[in-house]
Amino acid sequence: MRSERLAGPAGALALLLAVGRGALATPLDDKILPLDQYTTEKGRVLATKHAEDLRALNAGIYHCLPWVEVDKHSISFQRPRHLPPADARYLSLRIFIEQDPSPTFASLPMQDRASAMYSRYVTPLLRRMTRSKALTADAALDGFTIILDWLKQSPGAAGERPVHETIAVFIERNTALDYLSGKSTARDLANRAKILAWDGEKPLGPVRVTLYRDDFVATFKVKNYQLEPGVTCP
């Protein structure tokens, strides 16, 4: 069931994908943080050891979730500065979600907008990030970070720059593995995750989310979009 709190991807984006994405059969590697940008050996070792997993994650999102954008250097083993230990390394993914304007969504409190975005994207993305058994078994990996950005839909002053809203979800590795193995529920996962929100550059602090049933990521198809030959989206 698709949550009615969120609209679908913008129509202009669907047209762009239909005519343009096929010209680039593979995603750009610049979505992945280069090795020389890591500041510690632990980060460099993880990025080197699991380079193929990072490329597979990038390609999977590029081909199978074509309505979202992954910005430059948005896939990496980042260090959440607010979480112990000092050099904790989380596999991090940041996406921008393009969607049609929705008065219903815009009228919701921020906590409910965060809940809707979490419900739609976090667990599907977590499953994509944990497909490699070698990666999830690596004791040097401390957890997973999923950052969701979307355009704030409330009207601003004339000439004002568009503002993004953001939630960042931090999930410890054991918490993720408990959920993926069926030892805990999606509600348990959300309760144990640390979720922070921003309104543009303004931090809003921790938020608690309510889960909604939303199978949009699994069922939505962009009109006229065709996968490249040999590509599947399980």
Radius of gyration: 18 Å
Unreliable runs, pLDDT <50, ≥5 residues?
11-23
User: Which sequence of SSEs, written as H and E, runs from N to C?
Assistant: HHHEEEHHHEEHHEEH
Kindly report the average pLDDT value. 89
The helix content, as a percent range, equals 25-40%
Shape: globular
Structural class: alpha+beta
Largest sheet features: 7 strands, mixed
Indicate how many domains the architecture comprises.
Answer: 1
Which band does the percent of strand residues land in?
A: 15-25%
- The total beta strand count reads 7
Question: What's the tally of helices?
Answer: 9
Span of the ends, CA to CA: 19 Å
How would you explain this protein's 3D organization?
With 234 residues, the chain is an alpha+beta fold. The chain has one domain (11-219). The protein is 34% helix and 18% strand. It contains 9 helices and 7 strands; from the N terminus they run αααβββαααββααββα. Strands 1, 2, 3, 4, 5, 6 and 7 form a 7-stranded mixed sheet that branches. Helix 7 (173-180) runs antiparallel to helix 8 (186-192). It is globular, with a radius of gyration of 18 Å.
Short description:
This protein has nine helices and seven strands. By secondary structure, the protein is of the alpha+beta class.
